[in-house]
Amino acid sequence: MKKVFGVFGDPIEHSLSPAMHNAAFSALGMDCVYHAFRVKPEKLENAILGAETMGFGGLNLTVPLKEAALKLDCVKPDPLAAGIGAVNTIVFRDGEILGYNTDGLGARQALLETAVEIEGSKVLIAGAGGAARAIAFQLATDGADIIIANRTEERAVELAGDISAAKLPGKVRGTGLLELRTLIRDADILINTTTLGMHPRTDASIAEAEDLHPDLAVFDIVYNPLETKLLRDAKAAGAKTVSGVLMLVYQGAEAFRLWTGAKPPVELMKKTVLEALKV
Ligand code: ATR
Fold first, then answer.
1. Which of 111, 130, 161, 277 falls 20 to 30 Å from 267 in CA-CA distance?
2. What is the residue-averaged pLDDT of the chain?
3. Contact 168, 136 (CB under 8 A)
4. pLDDT at 87
5. Quick check: 181 and 208 in contact, CB under 8 A?
6. Are residues 179 and 79 in the same domain?
């Protein structure tokens, strides 16, 4: 009988995860199917317990459920997910419901694939929302020297405080956007986690084009459009660029590995997502 996997969220109809995981299952000849389910936060516990009861193989959680999952008694988060404060992957194992967060791992892998060194690098993260939390926790674990710059400065300072309290190898501080231009000129890696540049406001960018430089790697987690103004400007300045699509693919690949123990067919997953985005 087919094993069922799924992603819960609301809204959920535009999720690329079903196409990506179904392609992976079918390439590996696994008798599995992955489906998107619209679940409201107040019904999340019922939905997770129901999935467990029905023998689901595993779950992804997306907006607005990632933080809610951590508050449920039935979910046991691993230390990274607990630190981040959000769960994006649920594993059913030996009667337990385990919560993981693979978003940061996805970002890490996206950087590594583009031959960007993390340990000891000066990383400037623009934004302090959920995505920034996951990325900052992971890169601090990997020993990066991080500055979080956010429009609402207190959010950046709070996130930096949370990471410092976790006593990870990397250093981290939070600030507002006032010193952003100076910070970009001094950074090795710039990561945009804000919504700036996302469709339909595709002319927006967190950075001034003239501040981008060839010693910089620029990673934009926005993948709609595929090439944001920030990435276009970065390319023109001779900087390395890292597409947000890679983070999406690698967070999925890490989830796939956690559920199945199998090596995910990453290239196929990437191709599937790129095709779905072009439609
Ligand atoms: P997510 O959880 O997906 O990361 P979020 O929590 O809504 O999303 O965070 C969005 C980020 O984009 C925030 O850091 C937000 O800044 P504030 O904390 O000040 O709201 C940032 N952001 C959104 N619009 C922005 C804009 N026009 N200029 C600068 N930052 C912006």
1. 130
2. 97
3. no
4. 98
5. yes
6. no
Å from CA of 274 to ligand 1 middle: 25
- C-alpha of residue 169 to centroid of ligand 1, in Å: 26
Number of H-type helices and E-type strands within the chain: 11, 12
Q: What percent of the chain has pLDDT over 90?
A: 98
pTM: 0.95
The CATH number covering residue 14 comes to 3.40.50.10860
User: 76 vs 278, which has greater pLDDT?
Assistant: 76
The atom of ligand 1 lying closest to the CA of 194 is 12
C-alpha closest to that of 245 among 216, 220, 278: 220
Q: Which atom of ligand 1 is nearest to the CA of 131?
A: 4
Statement to judge: residues 191 and 81 lie in one domain: no
The range of the structural domain enclosing residue 36 comes to 3-101+246-277
The pLDDT assigned to 278 comes to: 87
26 Cβ closer than 6 Å to some ligand 1 atom: no
User: In terms of domains, do 132 and 232 share one?
Assistant: yes
The closest alpha carbon to 132, from 148, 143, 114, belongs to 148
228-255 residue pLDDT tens: 999 999 999 999 999 999 999 999 999 9
Question: ∠ CA 252-133-110 to the nearest 5 degrees?
Answer: 40
Q: Is the CB of 270 under 6 A from ligand 1?
A: no
Please determine, for residue 115, whether its predicted confidence score (pLDDT) is greater than 90: no
Domain count for the chain: 2
Whole-angstrom distance, CA of residue 279 vs CA of residue 276: 6
Closest CA to 258 of 113, 80, 40, 39: 80
Catalytic residues: 66
CA nearest ligand 1 atom 2, residue: 130
Residue 6 CB–ligand 1 contact under 6 Å: no
Q: How much of the chain, in percent, has pLDDT values that exceed 70?
A: 100
